[in-house]
Every structure is written in C-alpha cells, then in structure tokens.
Amino acid sequence: MSKAREIPASLPGTAGIAVHGNVASQLYDDLRRRIVSLDLPPGTVLLRAELAAEYGVSQTPLREALQRIEQDGLLHVHPQSKTVVSKIDLAQIFEAHFMRVALETEVVRQLARQPSRATMSDAMAIIRMQEAIAGDPDQLRVFQELDDSFHRALFAGLGHQRLHQLVNARSGHLGRMRKMQPHDDAKIRHILDGHKDIVAAILSGDEDKAMAAMRAHLSQTVTNAPDLRAKYPDFFT
C-alpha cells in the first residue's frame, strides 16, 4: 500500500486511553494487536499526527509506543516523516518458531515433572471455552486469543510470565502469518486436540510425552509459510 490508511476514531478498547494506566504501554498494546491481527496489514503507512489525534494523546507516548513496536520488528519508523508497517519476514518467522518450540517444550517438561493442579485447571478451563465457540466462525478471533491464553497459562504455571512476554515480542511476524492461515474445522480440531494431549501428558507426569505433544502441536505453524508467501506476495519481504 502506498498511501496512509485512516485510523478509525472509535477503536476497540481505546476509550480513555490517555487517562487510565501507562499511556505508552496502552498505545503499544493496541497498535501491536492491530498489526498482528492484520487490521493494519503490511505496507500500511501510519502518520503520527493523525494517530495522535485519533487516540487523543500527545506525540511523546505515541513515539515511545512506536519505537517499542519497531524493536519488535513490526514497524519501520522514519523520523520526522512517516511510519510503515513492516512486511512479514520468513527468516524471523522460522527464528521465532525455533525459540517457541525450544522454550515451550521445556515448559511442559518441567510442568510434567511437578504437575500443578491449579495450572492444569486454568488450562482445561481455557480448552472448555474454546470448545464452546469452536463451531462459530464469528468467534474465530476469540478462539485465537484463547489459544494464546492457553500457552501463557503454562508459562505462568512456572512463574515465567516474562519469558512468555519475550516469546510474544519476538513472534510478531509469526503471529501475523498465523492469522493468514485458514482456520477450517480440521485446523480447529488440531488445536483443540493438541491442547488436550498436552494437558493429559503433563497430568500423567510423563516428561517425554509432554514434550512430544507440544512439539506435535506446534509442528503445523510454519509448514505452509512458503505457500502463504506465494499467495500474498505483497505482504512478505
């Protein structure tokens, strides 16, 4: 895209953004969410003056938020000019996937060594919520958010929330590609079955089985990356 997209005046979750909490953090969270969800697709030009006006904030917290998103590799910030949503980079996708598999298999290994009933209860509650909306295409975004919540709950079970934040920060390109993948019945079932297998393996105390279940669950994430790049060439580097 070559021209700036208009940022809608009424954005979900942004009411009172300049009043409550840390303004820069809220701006970071909302803008990053919209980029990863492809509401702001690769190549979109963001004009900082328009963003500040639409969000009702000053340039200072907005600049900080954009710099943080740039550090995540999702923006190209041109000082005194414009900001462009970066295109999806396959190299960063495979790097993020490697890191995610390495960390998450270790997380489930440690959970299987000392299963936490509270953590597994949280994980199973998330699975039940996913099952309740699995057949509703209008709830796909909620289903995907619950998918992220499931993995975050496992990290939290070990007290490693900051590690999950690190994975999330480095997975922006991977996250965008995941949004592009078709979520048909087979894909939804793969996700749900994977979550159930992971929980069952952890509760059984079988470390190897838990690691294998997590690896199998994450295996399909990058398999169709080349196909998606061919299908959406304007979105990729």
TrEMBL record:
Pfam families: FCD (PF07729), GntR (PF00392). Residues 21-88 form the HTH gntR-type domain. The keyword DNA-binding applies. Keywords: DNA-binding, Transcription, Transcription regulation. The keyword Transcription regulation applies. SUPFAM superfamilies: GntR ligand-binding domain-like, Winged helix' DNA-binding domain. It comes from the Bacteria. PANTHER family: GNTR FAMILY REGULATORY PROTEIN, TRANSCRIPTIONAL REGULATOR, GNTR FAMILY. This is GntR family transcriptional regulator.
